[in-house]
Amino acid sequence: MPEAHDGRDRIDEPGFSYLPRFIEADEATALIDYFAAITPIWEQRHGGDDHARGAGRRARRLTRPVYWLGAWQFASLGYYAEPHYREDRCLRAEPLPPVMQAILDRLSPTLEADHADGTPHNTCLINYYGREVGKGVPVDFARLRMHRDGEPGPVVMFSIGQPGLLEFIDPDQSPDPELGVWTRHRSVSILSGPNYKERLYHRVTQVRTGQQPKLTSRLDHFETRRISVSFRHVPEALISDLDGFPDDRQARVRGYVEELAEHSEHYAAQLAR
Ligand SMILES: O=C(O)CCC(=O)C(=O)O
C-alpha cells in the first residue's frame, strides 16, 4: 500500500488535483465564521417508517453531521446520481455564500484546463467531522464511508481545520487504498473523469487532533475539528421546493425541514408554502 501523501505539496494526476493553501487565510476565516453560524443536522441513512425525528436516530444516523447549500439531498430520499436517480431528491436550499463563490471562481481556469469542466458548481455538502461529548464516553465521528458522488462533472472539495485522510479505493481490486492524501487546512481537491469519479470510491478514515484553527458549530455536544465542503452540479430544473415533491417524499423529509426551520428562514418559508 503506498504511503499517504502528507498534503504539503501539490498533486496533479489525470482526474485528481490537490492544491495546498489555495484558499487564502482571510477566506478561511470567513468560511470558519460561516460554518459556526449554521446548524448542521444528523440525518439518518435510510428512509422507511422509523426515520421520523427521534425514532431509531442514534443507531442509523450518518457518520457525521451535515448541511447542504444550493440543493439539499437527503439520505432518506436517496442521493442524486446520473443517469437513473434524478427526480424528486433535491430540495431547494440556501445559496452559497460569496466567499465560497469567490474561491470557486478563482478555480475555474484549473477546472477548465485540468478537468475539462465548465459546469457551474451550484450545490454543496458541508461535512462536520469531530467528537460527540457530554453524553458519557466521547465518541469520534470523524469519518466518511466509502462512496462515489453521482452528480455529473468534477467534484471540488475544500478542507478546513485539522488534516483529514482522504483515500481512494477500488474494493474489487484490493482492500488497500490506491491513493491517500492528508488534506490540509485551506487545501482544495478536485476529482473528475472515469478513474476518480467512476472506478474509484473515496472515503475519509481519520482526522488528526489539534487546537488550531479553532472550529465551532451550533450543534450541541459536538467538538468540531475538520469541515469539508464538496461542490457538485445538479441541473436547476431538478431542484424542487418542498411542495413540489410527491406527498410520500414530502412526508419523509418534513421532520428534517422542521428541524432546519428552527434556525433558518429559508426552511421556515419552505414549510409555509
Ligand atoms: O471530507 C472530505 O474531504 C471528503 C468529502 C466527500 O467525499 C463528500 O462530501 O462526498
Describe the structure.
- With 273 residues, the chain is an alpha+beta fold.
- The protein has one domain: Sandwich (Jelly Rolls), CATH 2.60.120.
- It is built from six helices and 14 strands.
- The protein has helices at 25-37, 57-60, 98-115, 193-199, 247-261, 265-272; strands at residues 11-13, 16-19, 66-69, 71-72, 91-92, 123-132, 139-141, 144-147, 155-161, 164-169, 179-183, 187-191, 201-207, 222-232.
- Strands 1, 2, 3, 6, 7, 9, 12 and 14 form an eight-stranded antiparallel β-sheet that branches. Strands 8-13-10-11 form a four-stranded antiparallel β-sheet. The protein has a two-stranded antiparallel ribbon with strand order 4-5.
- Strand 6 and strand 7 (139-141) form a beta hairpin.
- Helix 5 (247-261) runs antiparallel to helix 6 (265-272).
- The chain is globular.
- Residues 48-58 have low confidence and may be disordered.
- Residues 125, 127, 144, 149, 157, 159, 164, 166, 183, 202, 204, 228, 230 line the site of 2-oxoglutaric acid.
- The site of 2-oxoglutaric acid (AKG) has 13 residues, from strand 6, strand 9, strand 10, strand 13 and strand 14.
Identify the notable features of this structure and list them briefly.
four-stranded antiparallel β-sheet; binds 2-oxoglutaric acid; 273 residues; Jelly Rolls; alpha+beta
Mean pLDDT: 93
- Radius of gyration based on Cα positions: 18 Å
User: What's the end-to-end separation, in Å?
Assistant: 53 Å
- The shape, in one word, is globular
Profile the largest sheet. Answer: 8 strands, antiparallel
Secondary structure: number of strands: 14
> Helix content range of the residues, please?
10-25%
**What compounds are bound to the protein?**
2-oxoglutaric acid
Q: Counting H and I runs of at least 4 residues, what is the number of helices? A: 6
CATH topology: Jelly Rolls
